[in-house]
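#lab-general

N.A. 3:47 PM
ok so I finally got the sequence cleaned up, no stray characters, all 234 residues accounted for. can someone with queue access submit it? mine expired

B.Y. 3:52 PM
send it over

N.A. 3:53 PM
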Amino acid sequence: MRYYYAEHQTAYRQLEREGLTQWNDLFGESWTFDDFPNRAFLESVLDRLPPSGDVLEYGCGTGPAACFLAARGFRVDAIDLIPEAIALARAFARERGVSVNFGVQDVCAMPAGSKQYDVILDSYCLQSIVTDPDRASALTAVRDRLKPNGHYILSTAMYDADRVYDGDFRYDATSGICYERTTEPADDAVQLDNTWYLPHRRHLRPEALRAELERAGLHVVSQQGGDVVATRPG
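B.Y. 4:20 PM
back already:
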């Protein structure tokens, strides 16, 4: 099982059990389904996007951003690797009377496909894609599925000097990788100072994120911390 699967499966099962609506609800934050963390950023960039364009959201979770765009006339495909998340997303879309094509898919392992999109959206997924090969796979999937001059709209958690990594967590400032201690060797585990760790998050500084996107063949149009608009050059 890949390092990013178990945590997310556990979280979405808890959301379902407790009747919650989205990831942040698990951390004592008071969000409604329609008031999701990157809504203000999405609203601020809507005028850059083609009306009724084709959108792919990966790591969609329970689907608030996908439903938001579908309600505004976009044709939305939305994927997540956790079946429980997709089941919840479909239910929330039905409740709101919006049409979203939800599916179970890992963006790090997407098969070759011919469909291209005007917009690809990431609503705080990329920080959980930690290793260099996985991030390269995800960003290649983004680049290859964007139409020429299409927009990649990214919101991701970033390095914060005030964030504390303690207990079972360890931060590598060189790579931006946060590791979580594990009790035994496992898929994707690394050994640091005779202790096994799994990749947990990637918290980059703004300039490192920008460089990573440009290496992937994307052109950064605007960036405010982890809120980024990039395009695939035509």
